[in-house]
Structure formats: structure tokens, C-alpha cells
Amino acid sequence: MGKITDLQGTFELHNGVQMPYFGLGVYLSKDGDEVISAIQEALNHGYRHIDTAAIYKNENGVGEGIKESNVNRKDVFLVSKVWNDEQGYDSTLKAFDKSLERLGTDYLDLYLIHWPKGQLSKETWKAMERLYKEKKVRAIGVSNFLQHHLEDLIAESEIVPMVNQMEFHPYLVQQNLIDFCNQHKIQYEAWSPIMQGKIFEMNEFTILAEKYHKTAAQVVLRWDLQKGVVTIPKSSKKERIIANADIFNFELSEEDMRLLDNLDKGHRFGPDPDNFDF
């Protein structure tokens, strides 16, 4: 894992691409003004990694926000995902083109399979390998894949996924899955790092926030990065976007890292990748 230095620092993916380890997630940001201004605020504040998905229905606004910011497209690490009803070989290629069109760009930095769909995802992955070889996307990966999903996919693939984006927070560490990903040089990435706001009610975070003169959110986001996990907290509020990124002037001790690791109880706030119906 590289050093954690600043908002534009990166972790290196197994194909040599540099992925900024901190970004803005735009799940639930409304298309139009809300997401456009969130993207502009983030980019103009120094963020260089934006994470969206077809199902978020805001790719148009994301593209617009990038265009209207003072940052060149080539300096933005832009991520989208193929939704479940468009998985499959041909439909993934079409879904990718539609995402590009909505985003107003001719390539993506990272494209992810949003959820594991068994055999269907293997067809999706073949399409993604093709997009990667055609240099339409700089890196390809998956989201919500547990170890057995990854093993199943890798067994029949030419390219090992570069990223696995998972629900990740102190109640759901899944250290065995992180270890498996590290062994296969698959970069681990967190969604829902703030546990839908639950961390603000937890005594452990109140204590650590006081100790480090930081907020609970800043403490948990710092924990992510020190574990080598890319993180993309979502917000459409300017103050929150700026505050979330203020995590490069302190470091959690090993003892406090362990304290947070030990809160793990295998608890999900989102769907279970082994049991979902969409």
C-alpha cells in the first residue's frame, strides 16, 4: 500500500493504473443541479475521483459537472457500473456506450459489474475484458462480489478484476475477503463507510473524535485509507464534501485501528450479495 499523503494520492491497480484512494460517491444525488454542483464543489476542492452508476440515474449531471468544473476530464478518475438488467455480453457493451453518452466522455477510468449474477456475470465480464482491450476503459472490476463469486469469475476469465467495491465499515470488515483480494492484487473499495450515519451514535467514535480533534466521519474515513481501502463517501452538501476530505493531517494509532477492526459483527446495512432479488 502506498503512503497516504493528500486528497490526490493514489493506490496502484494491478495493471499499473493509479486510482485516487479518496473520491466522491453520488448515489442518491439527484440528476441536474444537485449532482452538478456536488461534482463541481468536489473537483474544485481537489477531489479527482467520481463514482456513479447507471442505476443512479445521474450520469448526465455527473458529466455536466465535470465539464463545468475547472478540471480537465483526463485528470478525473471516472467510474460507472453496469446494472443487473443490462448484464450479459451484448447488453453490457450497449450499456457501456449509453453510460459514455450520458457522461459526455469517450472513455471511463473504471467500469464495474454492480452485483454478482452468476453465469450472466461471466458473460458481462467477457464484454468488459473486450472494452478494456479496446482501451475504452482503463480498468475493470466488480462490486459486491464475495470470495466465492470472485473465485468463480476468475476461474473463467483472462483478466483478474482490478477492483472490488464492497459495503465496508467497522460493523462489516470482512477481513478474510480483504486478504483474498490483497492476495490477488484486487483493490478493495468501500461503499457506505459511514454506516448510514450510525457511527455518529457510537460511543467509540465519540471518544476517538475527541482524541484526534476530528469528526466521527473523518475518523472512519481515515481508518479506511489506513487499511488500504479506497473510499468514496457520498454527499451533495458543500460543507460535508469539504469536511470529508480533511483527513490528511492526522493518523490513527495501531491501537485505535485495532479498536475499530474489533467492532466487526458481520452486520450489513445494504443487501446481502448472496441473497438479493433485483
CA(first)-CA(last) distance: 35 Å
Number of strands: 10
Number of helices: 10
**CATH third-tier fold name:** TIM Barrel
- Unreliable residue stretches: none
Roughly what percent helix? 25-40%
**How does the major sheet shape up?**
8 strands, parallel
Radius of gyration: 18 Å
The strands making up the biggest β-sheet line up spatially as 3-4-5-6-7-8-9-10
Strand content range: 5-15%
Mean pLDDT: 97
CATH architecture descriptor: Alpha-Beta Barrel
Content-based structural category: alpha/beta
CATH superfamily: NADP-dependent oxidoreductase domain
Topology:
Blueprint: E1 10-12, E2 18-20, E3 24-25, H1 33-45, E4 49-51, H2 59-68, E5 77-82, H3 89-103, E6 110-113, H4 119-133, E7 140-143, H5 147-155, E8 163-167, H6 175-183, E9 187-191, H7 203-212, H8 216-226, E10 230-231, H9 238-244, H10 254-261
Parallel strand pairs: 3-4, 4-5, 5-6, 6-7, 7-8, 8-9, 9-10
Antiparallel strand pairs: 1-2
Report on the structure:
The strands form two sheets. This protein has an eight-stranded parallel β-sheet with strand order 3-4-5-6-7-8-9-10. It contains ten helices and ten strands. The longest helix has 15 residues, at 89-103. With 278 residues, it is an alpha/beta fold. The model has no long low-confidence stretch (mean pLDDT 97). The two termini are 35 Å apart. It has one domain (10-261): NADP-dependent oxidoreductase domain (TIM Barrel). Its EC number is 1.1.1.346. This is 2,5-didehydrogluconate reductase (2-dehydro-L-gulonate-forming). The record marks 81 as: Lowers pKa of active site Tyr. GO terms for molecular function: oxidoreductase activity, acting on the CH-OH group of donors, NAD or NADP as acceptor. Keywords: NADP, Oxidoreductase.
